[in-house]
Predict the 3D structure of the following.
Amino acid sequence: MINITLQKRLNSAKGEMLLDIQFKVANGEFIALYGPSGAGKTSTLKMIAGLLKPDNGLLKVSEQTWFDQSAKVNLSAQKRNIGFVFQDYALFPNMTVLENLKFASQNAPNLISELITIMELGSLKDVLPSQLSGGQQQRVALARAAVQQPNILLLDEPLSAVDNLLRSKLQDYILQIHERFKFTTIMISHDQKEILKMANRCIILNNGKITTDGPPTDVFFTDLITTTDKLEAKIIHIAINSENAVLTIELQNSLIRTQVSLAKAATLNIGDRISLQASL
Amino acid sequence: MTNWAPLILTLKLALITTFILLILSIPVAFWLSRTKSRIKPIIETIVTMPLVLPPTVLGFYFLLAFSPNNSFGAWLDNTFGLQLLFSFTGLVIASVIYSLPFMVQPIQSGLKNLSPSLAEAAYLMGKSKWETLRHVQLPNIKASVITGIVLSFAHTVGEFGVVLMIGGNIPGQTKVASIAIYDEVEAMNYSAAHFYSFVLFAITFCILLSVYSLNNRHFKGLWR
């Protein structure tokens, strides 16, 4: 169990902001941190890791106090045993893939070879990070964090820099690691689909405060759609064929195509708002 | 008969100075690259001052400080039996301070340009600051360290004003090549002056040439 109550004054682009958060994490949970940039997500991870000193608060990890302002306790980052996947991966450029993993833990040759197998890094063992693609670097960073067998695994937007296809594969790797080792995991993500797929809980941060905390399905979909609901959509494109017309419409950030009669299409223009009726 | 002693003395002075500077500058540069202390600008100013001050100013104050007639010089003499004025040890100390910015600045900017997440990642693996510096930070700023070494070495070889003020002209002790050249020209002995000058010219050219060729190859390797 992790008990987090932390406060920190931050200077953001919009001026000074008070990051003030309080939440508990059960062992083995997979939490997603979601929210606009500048909300304090990365600072939250860095305070948990001991890389950023909070102004005030209490951080306890299974009865061990990591930070307590009133008792002047601040456990150094070295002693917290945190696995951290940085946004820029932070692979050591002077070491090969294998040396990077060994640097994280000298005494775990079996674990290292297991992770090399899980992450499919066998052929890349002796390669320097500069010769790897973004997705490969990401896998090495993830393996390196797991080699430590950390108390907590923190992922700072690990998948923001890779394309969609690769993203989905890398999500599977992260889930595999989580399945295998049951690390308590906190991941920053900007992608709702990703959070729904991976996390069992989502915390939304806004302007330094937690606004919502719950299962991703509840957090993102506040309203249940019923048959009487009307969904607002916008026409993006109209294609006229010989017998009918195809409308491309935008519905909550997704594009949908639907067929209408030519007569109906003649009454519609691009940019029009239409309502769709759900039939369940 | 050519006298190699001044040239050998110059190389010895430059080697010892560069070695001490390397040991000394790494912690200074490390501290400067990460500190948010209010005294940082003061320390930076002091480290950089030899870059802009006339060497004679530095030499003059060393002369005063090292003189046994003054309290600091007398204290050194009484406590350690050190007479720094007109001695090789005095030259080394003065050279270290004189060339300090040439070693500190490249290493400091190298460390500063390194992504902070590299050191943070190492700390989270339980590595101490020293282990992180040795295994992660320094190996990744090799080019900056080599630049610092070469510049400090070359700068010490080219030293004249400071040596003239506190070293004097004792053969085998403080008579380095640059002083010897000045000496020979004063004595109208142009062939000896030419000999020293040409050797210094050739050595400096070769050192800088090899460093630049090495660096270029290094960067090409990175782009490929």
Q: What stands out?
A: The interface with chain B takes residues 49-51, 76-84, 86-88, 90, 92-94, 103-105, 130, 148 of chain A (CB under 8 Å). The longest strand of chain A covers residues 2-12. Chain A has a mean pLDDT of 90. Chain A is about 25% helix and 35% strand.
